[in-house]
Amino acid sequence: MNKPIPNSEPEREPVALGAMDFFARSRARLGFDVPPGLYDPNIIPASGDPGTDKMLEIIAREQPVRPAAVLIAVVDHPEPTILLTQRSAHLNDHAGQIAFPGGKIDATDASPLDAALREAEEEVGLSRDFVEPIGYLDLYGTGFGFRILPTVARVRPGFALTINHSEVDDAFEVPLSFLMNPANHQLHSKEFRGMERFYYAMPFAERYIWGATAGMLRVLYERIYSS
């Protein structure tokens, strides 16, 4: 990976939110309206980065939309954490990368929420009995044609995971305070057909969290932590 780009914006002080405040803000700011851009190729998810927006416009013309859902599972410890996975190395898409539990929305799924819960059960054995869905985050587009709708959820501690090694190699938790600290949000760039586009990375110990996963975490920060 390339070196992070120095951020020219004034560094923001991390906002200290306890678990109760985080979940209260999330319930107040999120809902379950499904954005039409999840399925409509003519509606391009806004990224906030002109290069990425242009890339998504091009991808929408060249590839069919691939609706997907992920679960941003915030575990309600005294110091909350987010549950992440490491995708199996043999997968065709994003092999070995750090991800949220989730995947494509099937025709049999009642909603994007249902798809996210189903995928979390299939990938890591997270029982729905422990999950309290809170609402959808903003729609997130990728260069592979995916339109990802993340569900933010409170997860009650005490669950036991069963890893499906055909899909993921590992599951682990990262402190919410680390992921929501803007000092840990590295900005990188890469070229797409002669255009520069930017993306986030949030390295944590030996885990390299980047791309769509880091991008959705940044959106979570902007929606919940920004006043």
UniProtKB/TrEMBL annotation:
Organism expressing this protein natively: Bradyrhizobium sacchari
Keyword DNA repair attributed: no
Entry keyword set: Hydrolase, Magnesium, Manganese, Metal-binding
Residue ranges of every copy of the Nudix hydrolase domain listed in the record: 65-200
Cofactor: Mn(2+); Mg(2+)
PANTHER family cross-referenced by the UniProt entry: MITOCHONDRIAL COENZYME A DIPHOSPHATASE NUDT8, NUDIX HYDROLASE
Name of the protein: NUDIX domain-containing protein
PROSITE patterns attached to this UniProt entry: NUDIX (PS51462)
Any Pfam family hit: NUDIX
GO MF annotations, alphabetized: coenzyme A diphosphatase activity; metal ion binding
